[in-house]
Every structure is written in C-alpha cells, then in structure tokens.
Design brief:
heterodimer; A: mainly alpha; Four Helix Bundle (Hemerythrin (Met), subunit A); two-stranded antiparallel sheet; B: alpha+beta; Double Stranded RNA Binding Domain; 6-stranded antiparallel β-sheet; 12 helices; 21 strands; binds protoporphyrin IX containing FE
C-alpha cells in the first residue's frame, strides 16, 4: 500500500476511536444521571423501613462537552483520512463501499457539528454519533482489499457528475441521520416529557431543517443520477432497484414535508414518518446487499 | 373556479355542481396528497423489493406466502396501470391544488391584511410590547428602519388613533412550491413525450468498415472506422472506443470517438458505446466460383450447442438451402477456454454447414476448421475466413423529453432551495400614542416555528436598542429548553 493510503487508514482508525468515545460521552450526557434517594422511616412498631427512590437528573455537562470535543477530533481525523485518500487516488474517495462509508463518516460528523452549533443542543449526539461510530465498525468489517485503490470501471469514470451525485447522496443521508435523531428525541420527550431534553418545538425544527437540507440534496441525487445514467447507458431511468430505493426514500420524506403542514399530523406522526424515512435511507445505503442491477459494482 | 370551494352547502346548487365541488376538493386536499404520495411510496417499495431476494426470504420463512411471493415477483409494478393511474392522479392533484391556492397566495403577497386587534396580539403565544417616551410616529419610524435593515417590507394602516402594521420578509418564497410541484408534472410529461416520440435502439451493431442505417424515420447512418478496447493488468476493461463517422442523408455530419460516458450526438440521435464483439470476415463461393457471401459476420449473438461459451454466428443461404454456423475461439479467460471441446487457435474458425430445413436429415451436416486466408471446400461450398475484425454495439437514442427534464430539474431544485432557505417571516402589530409617550405591541406569525420566534426575539432586542426602550417580551413556556448551553448552567 501507498504511504498516503496507509496514512489515510490510520486516520480512519483514529476517527473510529474518537467517535466511539464521543458516543459514550453523549449517551451519558443525554440519558442523565440516576439519583438514588434513601429514606429511613420509623414505624410505630419500633422497626425501621428504608425506602429508596430513584429519579433522573440532567446529565453532567462535562460529558456533553467531552462529546463535542471528541466529535471535533473525529471530524478532524475523518477529514485527514478523506484528504489523504483523495490525494492518493486523485479523485474523491467514493468508489466502493469502503471509500463511500469513509466519506459518509466525515459528512455525518460535519453535519452534526453544524446542527449542534446552530441550536446549541448536544443531546442529538447520543444518536448521531453512535450511527457514525457504527459506520466506522462497518468499515472495519469490510474486506481489507477494499482499502487499496483501484481504477474505476469505464461506466464510473464520468467524474464531475458522479462525484456530485455521490457526494450529494452522502450529505443527504448525513442530514437525514440528524433528523432521525431529532425525531427519536421528539417521541421520547413527548412520551416521557424528560425535562432536560430540548423542547418539542426545537426538536421539530431541527428535524425539519435537516430535511430541508437533505430533501433538496436527495432530489439532486436523483437528478444527477439520471443524467449520469443517461450519459453512461443512454437511459435516464431504468427502474433499477437502487434507483427506485432512492425514489422510495425521497417519497417518504415528501410525505413528511406534507404531514408537517397538516393539523393532527404535525408533531408525533411526522416524527414517526421520519423514523420510516431513515429506515429507507439505511435500506438504500445497503441496497447493494439485496439487489443486482446496474449499481451492483459498488464493491460488495 | 375558486368560488366552487368558497361556497358550500348553498341550497340552489345542482347535483352536478356538488359532485364537481367534491372532486375539486378531493384533489385540493393536502390530506389526500399525503395519502397519494404514501401509496406511491408503498408501490415503489413493493417494486423495489421485487428486484431483491427479500420476498423470497419471506416465502422461506413463511412457506404459505409462497404463492403471494410468486405473484409479487411476477408483477411489474412500475409498468402497471395502477402505478400509472396514481401518477396521473397526483399530477392532476398538483395542478388543481396549484390553481386553487393561487388567489390566496397572491393576496398574501400583493395585498396582505394589515388590520389586526390588540386582543389577538395579547393572546398570542409570543409578543413584545414597548413603551417609550416618544410619539407613535417616532416609534413607527424607528421600527420601520429596524425592519428595513432586516429586509422586511413594512405596511401600515391608520385605524382610529392606532397605527396597525404588517411586516414580512421573503414573501416571494411562498411561490417556491409552485416551480417545485410543476416540475413534478413536467417530469411526467417529459417521460411521456420521450416514450411516445423518441426511440431507443439498444443493440445497434456496426462492424469495422461497415456503414449501417439508423432507421426509425431518420436518414442517419453510422460507419465504424475502428474499434479499440484496452485493459488494465487485472483484465478489467479500461476503455472501449469506437471511431465513427455519422452521415445524414449521405453527407457527413459528425465524426469522432465514442467512449463510455462520452456519447456523440448527430441529427436528432445520440450514440452511446454499449458493448462490442468480434466479427469474422467470411467469403463463401459455390462450386462454380460465384460469390454467395462476402461481409463481416458478427459473432457472439448466437451460441452453438457444441461450444456454448464461444462466440458464434450464423450465415443463412436460402438459395442453396443451407446455413453456415461459424464459431470463433473463445478469448474470455473467465470462460476457461482451456476446457473447450473445439480447442481453436487464434486465426482459426470452426464451421458447420447444414441444411436450412432441420427435417432434411442430419447426414448432410459437415464441419471443418478453417485457417485464416486458406479457402477450403466444405459440403460443396468454398469457404474462406479472411480475417477477424471488430464490431461495436452502440445504443442509439432520441429522447425529445430531454429539454423538458432539464427545465424540470432546475425548477425542482431551485423551487426547493427557495422554499427552504428563504422562510417567510411575518409580524403584525399596533402602535399608538399613550399617556406617557407611545406604545408598540407586536407578534410574529410563527406558530410552531422556532426559527421565526428566534428571529422575532432578535428583532425585538435590536429594535429596543434603536428605540432606547426595553421591550416587555412574552416568551413561550418551554423556551427554557431552547438553548441548552444556558440550561446546562443550572446543573453545575
Ligand atoms: C398529490 C399532489 C400534491 C399536492 C396536492 C401537494 C400540495 C402541497 C401543498 C399545498 C404544499 C404547501 C404546504 C404549505 O406550504 O403549507 C406542498 C408542499 C410541498 N410538497 Fe406537495 N403536493 C403534492 C405532491 C407532492 C409530491 C409528489 C412531492 C414530492 C415528494 C411534494 C413535495 C412537497 C414539498 C417538498 C413541499 C414543501 C414543504 C414545505 O414548504 O415545508 N408534493 N405540497
């Protein structure tokens, strides 16, 4: 292996450690502490009864701060990993599942940091960072020969369009992960009313803004994908499962955007639709494992 | 047409009107739109899974579902009438909804209602009140310049001794959903136009040196000058390249290489590199020496039972009542040519001459191996394998829907960007003179709109500085949970 490729891999390894640690911190922060209270009561018979009650308290602030710091580290290392690989391959690393997922980890940490800073809330990290960390574990599970750089097959060589298509997909999925996290917290807050979670209104807004970024991006993915298919295969749209899976995802988010304007649907039901939306994202992402078809060369 | 929805239950209406009204409202309803899009999503999912092993997993897990799963695999969802009808309904719904909403949206943009009431502002979840020792006119001027600096439009109306105002920003963004939704219709239109008026030939094969007409009502023809394929060490393809000349009605209109991803357009059609194959140049003469056949034979579209992997081709000679099958050596390493029964070397082909009529009996079948350039008599025919050449397989397509798709794509992404990144902001308020100066009260139209409220708070703060008056702001109950850096402080 080329030195740069190796360096990129070491940076990736550092990313996975940082994101794993960040996940732990964020989870500790979001779940909060358990405070146990013991009360000893004397009964009239002269015996004593101890009752203990537990209640939750907001998580320790420093956990949240550590989570943020580690996420920044993760983003830095992921950036290095992508950068070195880009230099080594002379193109953006989006050619196989290894490269695609590596770039995805970078995108998801960046999108997360943007939302964390925009809203000043850290709890979402308890869901987004484990997703990013899970993605690094997935990368570890891929066959090692994917870490090497191979030239692209002719159909994939339309660089600008393909790069834009794939990058848009990566960033769309990353923002959908953020909206997923917001939706989960929305449902949790609604159900259990946990005091120290962000307000429903904020969570709803985070989810909507994230979809507001992700949905146009996903539209762009579909458009660029069909332009690319047109150049490569002479047909815009061939109802290939990977295409229709992306279309399905797009439609689910389309449903969400409409329900959000409807009385009775806005809020809880919209949040539930976002859960479906993210399931669709995962399905599309790992679609290569289910489908044959034109996209089957993704390296798995 | 908007009055149809505006008047409901008027006793004088005929049943026809009532029905039209119902239909109109069915199409206008966003609730129905949700249902329609959800159904479309469901069908898309069913169609997507059909291309996977998932239905089979289901059948394996629950054997009684097998007949259903078989039908699932058999159902071509995306070409089904159900799918097409749903698309049509959605297109109509979008069109109807667009027409229906236009007057209202236009009114919001051009002549919004300015008049409001103190009660409305008081009851609002969020509001702000300034009391300043200045006249209402000065308050108005101060607020106006603050809003101007934030690019708001500011409109006032005198109501008794009160100045009612309405301010908004990004009002045009309200129109963003129009290009977006219309783009969806355009995409469907583009698809229909493309399939009705376009054509697509996916196996347009041209041999080196050959010129072939495109057909489909065009005068185009393509000459393949040369085909080249190159590979990297692993055996994977690096480039396929066809050097072609394209003629329209006999005159050259275009020339150049076609490679994967780099098609050539000429006349109405576009030519793509699809695949390639080898051809063998054969010359066949009869016993008298008269030439029966002399042209490249494309091999690879046809397989012979004797040697299924090797590229084969078939020459039919109806006048002689025979056919000649030609098999070239298998060069694809993945096919394990070392196991071939024929074991042809490069520069050799295997031929088999047999009667065209299969019932004429097998005894007239004769086979031979021809070496390049050496004619040989087989079953009364003189066969010559001149040389091996290449043929390219192009895809020729004409899609008149393309300009429509391009316009639709721009409208789609542009419309979305406008909708999401330029949110409409609206504020209503009242300014009036009071005993100790002037008062100003206002509220944002930002129900369940966190961003709108946040902007309103920022605006009030800045307006307060400008007016030199501290605002009295009513905040939502849960605002404490808005900003967690602050909330964190309590827990330290
Ligand atoms: C069935 C026909 C449809 C109708 C009647 C319809 C109607 C509407 C209406 C009235 C709005 C504006 C909501 C508002 O601003 O208050 C809207 C927004 C929107 N619709 Fe549709 N729509 C239809 C189909 C679709 C489809 C198929 C999609 C794509 C999946 C779609 C995507 C959107 C988006 C992205 C928005 C913007 C959401 C926002 O501003 O927050 N619509 N639609």
């Amino acid at each position: 292996m080329d030195t740069l490729v190796k360096l990129s891999f070491y940076f990736f390894a550092a990313t996975s450690v940082a994101l794993g640690a960040a996940s732990v911190c964020y989870i500790a922060y979001a779940i909060g502490r358990v405070r146990v209270r013991r009360a000893t009561l004397a009964t009239s018979a002269g015996t004593t009864v101890t009752s203990s009650s537990a209640d939750f308290a907001p998580g320790n602030v420093s956990f949240g701060q550590w989570g943020s710091l580690l996420t920044w580290f993760g983003a830095f290392f992921a950036f290095g990993a992508v950068l070195f690989r880009t230099i080594a391959a002379e193109r953006l690393p989006t050619a196989n599942m290894y490269e695609f997922s590596l770039t995805f980890v970078l995108a998801i940490t960046i999108m997360y940091i943007i939302f964390e800073r925009m809203y000043g809330i850290r709890q979402l990290g308890a869901i987004v960072m484990p997703i990013a960390f899970g993605m690094t574990l997935y990368i570890w599970s891929l066959p090692a020969d994917m870490r090497e750089i191979t030239p692209l097959i002719p159909a994939l060589q339309a660089r600008p369009i393909m790069t834009a298509h794939v990058s848009a997909a990566i960033f769309a999925y990353a923002t959908f992960a953020v909206s997923f996290a917001a939706a989960v917290f929305y449902l949790v807050k609604k159900r259990w009313g946990i005091r120290w979670l962000p307000s429903l209104e904020v969570l709803d807004d985070v989810a909507f803004r994230a979809v507001g970024i992700g949905f146009p991006l996903l539209s762009l993915v579909l458009i660029l994908g069909s332009v690319w298919a047109h150049d490569a295969w002479g047909v815009y749209w061939s109802w290939d499962p990977k295409e229709t899976a992306a279309l399905f995802t797009w439609l689910v988010y389309g449903v969400y955007l409409h329900t959000r304007t409807l009385r009775g649907w806005r809020g809880t039901r919209s949040a539930v639709i976002l859960l479906f939306g993210f399931a669709a994202v995962i399905f599309t992402y790992y679609g290569n494992y289910f489908f044959g078809g034109l996209h089957a060369y993704g390296g798995v | 047409m908007a009055q149809l929805t505006a008047t409901t239950g008027s006793p004088s209406r005929s049943p026809v009107e009532v029905v039209i009204d119902r239909i109109w409202r069915f199409f206008c309803s966003v609730r129905m739109a949700v249902f329609e899009i959800a159904l479309l999503a469901l069908l898309t999912l069913i169609g997507t899974l059909r291309g996977s092993d998932v239905p089979q997993w289901i059948a394996d897990a629950w054997p009684f579902t097998q007949p259903l799963v078989d039908r699932w695999y058999a159902w071509d969802v995306f070409r089904s009438p159900l799918f097409a009808s749903l698309l049509a309904i959605i297109a109509i719904a979008i069109a109807v909804c667009t027409i229906n909403r236009a007057p209202g949206i236009w009114q919001t943009i051009s002549t919004p209602r300015i008049r409001t009431s103190p009660g409305y502002i008081d009851r609002a979840e969020v509001n702000a009140r300034f009391t300043a020792s200045m006249s209402a006119a000065d308050l108005e001027a101060g607020l106006r310049s603050e809003l101007k600096s934030r690019r708001y439009r500011f409109m006032t109306e005198q109501v008794g001794d009160q100045i009612h105002f309405y301010a908004d920003k990004n009002r045009w963004a309200k129109l963003g959903t129009y290009p977006f939704h219309l783009a969806l219709i355009l995409i469907l239109v583009g698809g229909i136009v493309g399939s009705m008026f376009g054509f697509r030939d996916v196996e347009f094969a041209v041999a080196e040196g050959e010129t072939r007409a495109v057909g489909h009502g065009t005068d185009l023809s393509v000459e393949l000058v040369r085909f080249t394929d190159s590979y990297i060490q692993t055996g994977d393809a690096q480039e396929y390249r066809s050097d072609v000349i394209i003629y329209d009605g006999g005159t050259k209109v275009s020339e150049g290489p076609i490679t994967v991803n780099h098609p050539i357009s000429a006349g109405v059609a576009t030519f793509y590199q699809a695949s390639f194959g080898i051809s063998v140049d054969m010359v066949i003469k009869d016993a008298t020496g008269a030439e029966l056949y002399n042209q490249p034979l494309e091999v690879g579209f046809f397989n012979l039972r004797e040697n299924p992997d090797a590229p084969a081709g078939l020459i039919r000679l109806p006048a002689q009542g025979v056919q000649v099958a030609v098999v070239a050596p298998d060069t694809n390493r993945a096919n394990r040519p070392d196991l071939d029964t024929l074991q042809l070397a490069n520069g050799q082909v295997w031929v088999q001459v047999s009667p065209l009529d299969a019932n004429a009996g097998g005894d007239t079948m004769e086979t031979a191996v021809l070496d390049q350039g050496q004619p040989q008599d087989v079953a009364g025919l003189n066969l010559l394998f001149e040389r091996e050449s290449r043929f390219t397989v192009l895809q020729v397509a004409y899609n008149p829907g393309i300009p429509i798709f391009i316009i639709a794509s721009v409208m789609l992404v542009g419309g979305l960007a406008v909708t999401f990144y330029f949110p409409l902001r609206r504020i209503r308020g009242i300014i009036q003179d009071s005993a100790d100066g002037g008062t100003l009260m206002m509220t944002p139209l930002a129900k369940r709109d966190w961003g709108g409220k946040r902007e309103f708070f920022a605006l009030t703060r800045d307006a307060g500085e400008r007016l030199g008056a501290a605002p009295d702001v009513k905040r939502p109950d849960d605002e404490g949970n808005w900003d967690h850096h602050e909330a964190d402080d309590d827990t330290r």
